[in-house]
Amino acid sequence: MQEQKLDAMDKIISLAKRRGFIFPGSDIYGGLANAWDYGPLGVELKNNVKQRWWKTFVTRRADMVGLDAALLMNTKVWQASGHLKEFSDPLVECKACHARFRADQIDIKSPCPDCKKGELTAPKQFNLMLKTFLGPVESEDNVVYFRPETAQGIFVNFKNIADTMRMKLPFGIAQIGKAFRNEITPGNYIFRTREFEQMEIEYFIRPPKDEAEWQTAFEDWRLAILAWCSDLGLKTEEVHELEVAKDELAHYSKRTIDFEYDFPFGRKELFGLAYRTDFDLNNHSLNYTDDNGDKLVPHCIEPSLGVDRSILAALLSAYSEEEIKEGDIRTVLKLPKWLAPIKAGVFPLMKNKPELVAKAKEVFALLSADYTMQYDDNGNVGKRYRRQDEIGTPYCLTIDFDTLGDNTVTVRDRDTMEQQRVLIAELPNFLRTNIK
Ligand SMILES: [Zn+2]
């Protein structure tokens, strides 16, 4: 079973490379460990995830606004937030082969898991923030850190946003952006990388009078995350909520749920939801003045989602192989239609017939104003269908000789493989109705 599941991972990695979704970073120079580049289809997929998230949680809500803060921040931010002191993992090193491990992930009394013989050092705390120097002088005074989370950019802008946008509690601030962590043991493809992209929300509420008050807001966000999982096409049975035990909660959290997904390499954290109380705004000495002129420190609920993990889980859930007839297997990415990198393929039946090519280009121009399309005139139509199935394209539009007479095209559905004729003039409406 385990072997079969890992095989599923290899299939995704191979498809993603072969079809231009995700390439190993710095590939022509032998790569860079755990760095990945999103190719032409990968960037479309990623943009779709980010736009959908933004639309769901910012555009469509009157109580939310967005932010795009700088990656590099004043070091005082990390002092105040506690990251300089606390944001570390326990590190052990093998005295023989010098392999490094996270002490909380292995049995440190046993010999080295790599070489099986070396003794391990005592654990020491290793700060996960990625360091660099600002300006030409490499001195301690010029040290800055790449943000290890987007959240602090939100907290330090709390006052700017509350004042300029005249926000009334409860309200939230959302941000999408890169974050960096110098992980001791990155791995599992795009699951844990040192550079990654987050979609974070800090949702501010009045200091609650009792537990019920914050639990209500927390519950709203719990349901919102579950709805997002379903939006990504994840199957309900693959997503699990882990209520973090009271004695294992981070010091700033009163309640945390880890949303876990059944990855081929095990059940691992996909998203997180935490009630961070007034910890962060207090750290930065920030407050809020309500309509009565009273100053108060809002509490905060944080739904934290990863772009890369959203993509990995969506790809794994969508991947399927179907035997059409004996020995003939088609690979289909059954992505939700809104998520598919290409919304429709446009095929002239034959590439050496100028009138078919002209009509196909007309269809491409009509639809590419609103949708990402792919023009393909290579090989027989059956093969073109399969190529689009493999990258999750919901529809294929074939322009044939009938098109020249009646201005209809054959629309072929990715999932049912059924075909129907649709008027060219009706195509924008057809896609708008069906791609959700
Ligand atoms: Zn070793």
Automatic annotation (TrEMBL):
This is Glycine--tRNA ligase. InterPro entries: aa-tRNA-synt_IIb, aa-tRNA-synth_II, aa-tRNA-synth_II/BPL/LPL, Anticodon-bd, Anticodon-bd_dom_sf, Gly-tRNA_synthase/POLG2, Gly_tRNA_ligase_bac, GlyRS-like_core. It comes from Candidatus Falkowbacteria bacterium CG10_big_fil_rev_8_21_14_0_10_37_14. Catalyzes the attachment of glycine to tRNA(Gly). ATP binds at residues 181-183, 191-196, 269-270, 306-309. Pfam families: HGTP_anticodon, tRNA-synt_2b. Its EC number is 6.1.1.14. It comes from the Bacteria. One of its GO terms (molecular function) is bis(5'-nucleosyl)-tetraphosphatase (asymmetrical) activity. It catalyses: tRNA(Gly) + glycine + ATP = glycyl-tRNA(Gly) + AMP + diphosphate. Keywords: Aminoacyl-tRNA synthetase, ATP-binding, Cytoplasm, Ligase, Nucleotide-binding, Protein biosynthesis. Substrate binds at R102, E149, F196, E197, Q198, M199, E200, E302, P303, S304, L305, G306. Residues 10-348 form the Aminoacyl-transfer RNA synthetases class-II family profile domain. The keyword GTP-binding does not apply. One of its GO terms (biological process) is glycyl-tRNA aminoacylation. Belongs to the class-II aminoacyl-tRNA synthetase family.
